[in-house]
Amino acid sequence: MRTDLISSRENPKIKYACAVRDHEKQRAADGVFFAEGPKLCLELAQSCAVRAAYATAAALQKTPALAALDPVPVTPPVAEKLAGTKADQGVFALFATPCPPPATLDTARRILALEGVQDPGNVGTLLRSAAAFGFDAVLLGPGCAAPFSPKTLRASMGAAGRLPVLHTADLPASLAKLRARGVTCLAAALYRSRPLDEAGRAFPGGLCVVIGSEGQGLSEQTVQACDAAVRIPMTDRVESLNAGVAGSVLLWHFRGV
Predict the structure, then answer these.
(1) Are 218 and 210 a contacting pair, CB within 8 Å?
(2) Residue partners of 32: CB distance under 8 A and separation at least 6
(3) Which residues pair with 210 in a beta bridge?
(4) DSSP summary character for residue 16
(5) Boundaries of each MRM3-like substrate binding domain copy (predicted)?
């Protein structure tokens, strides 16, 4: 048990952890991200390097496995500041952000691509589904929620640490490169689309499922950069599904292809 207890809410290490929690620029500049909760932190520790960890005595007593993170002990008031709320879980950690090589897309066979999915809950849900259904990589285009923000991490349950997540400033151009090596790119869209059941199941060169936001959908340029558009057949009781649900249905449908 470490004895270097932090009891001041103004401790520089605590203030830095809060800055990483709250600011994407800080996360990007330092290559670290913030996570909270015993289950999430232990899960992330299996795939991401721990840069620092903090825990209350009560949290360590409840979950002895947290000792593997070598957390600095903190008092409940400090934990409250780290959580940003009074309902904290008593466990916090900073992890090194994974940096998959760009060449990952040269060999990945099943890829999820997102464009303009701004809601962290939807991005997190889709990352979790992509990991669950065996996809090899995720490609984030402009306008997507940050995969390592606290809200996205909670929704993904750390899935961003288990599969490569890459970024592109030009999604249509990235899709064109995938198609050039034989990957079939399917856009989730309504206009000029075919029902999902008619999309086929044979993609010898690989498959990329492309999903946009619920409100705006995919841009015309992105749809045109794909091989075809597909839609999920539904009754007329609802107009649409949110991006997290619709994308998860598509990822399940194309599992194992």
Answers:
(1) yes
(2) 20, 51, 94, 95, 96, 97
(3) 113, 187
(4) H
(5) 11-93
User: Quick one: 1 exposed, middle or buried, by C-beta within 10 A (0-12, 13-18, 19+)?
Assistant: exposed
Q: Cβ distance 40 to 87 under 8 Å?
A: no
* Residues 40 and 151: beta-carbon distance below 8 Å: no
**What pLDDT does residue 1 have?**
59
Burial of 4 (C-beta count, 10 Å sphere; 0-12/13-18/19+): exposed
Residue 48's contacts (CB-CB under 8 Å, 6 or more residues apart) are 95, 96, 97, 98, 161
Q: What percent of the chain has pLDDT over 90?
A: 81
Token reading at 16? 């830095």
Q: Which residues contact 83 (CB under 8 A, 6 or more apart)?
A: 36, 89, 92
Listing DSSP states for 172-188 in one string gives HHHHHHHHHTT-EEEEE
Residue 59 above 90 pLDDT? yes
Q: Which residue would you say has higher pLDDT here, 196 or 84? A: 196
Task: Give DSSP secondary structure letters for 99-141.
Answer: ---GGGGGT-SEEEEEES---HHHHHHHHHHHHHTT--EEEE-
Mean pLDDT of the chain: 92
44-55 pLDDT, tens digit each = 999 999 999 999
What would the two tokens of residue 256 be?
Answer: 């194992």
User: Which tokens in the block code for residue 214?
Assistant: 């619920």
DSSP lists the bridge partners of residue 231 as 195
Query: What pTM value is reported for the model?
Result: 0.91
- CA dist 17 and 52 (Å) reads 9
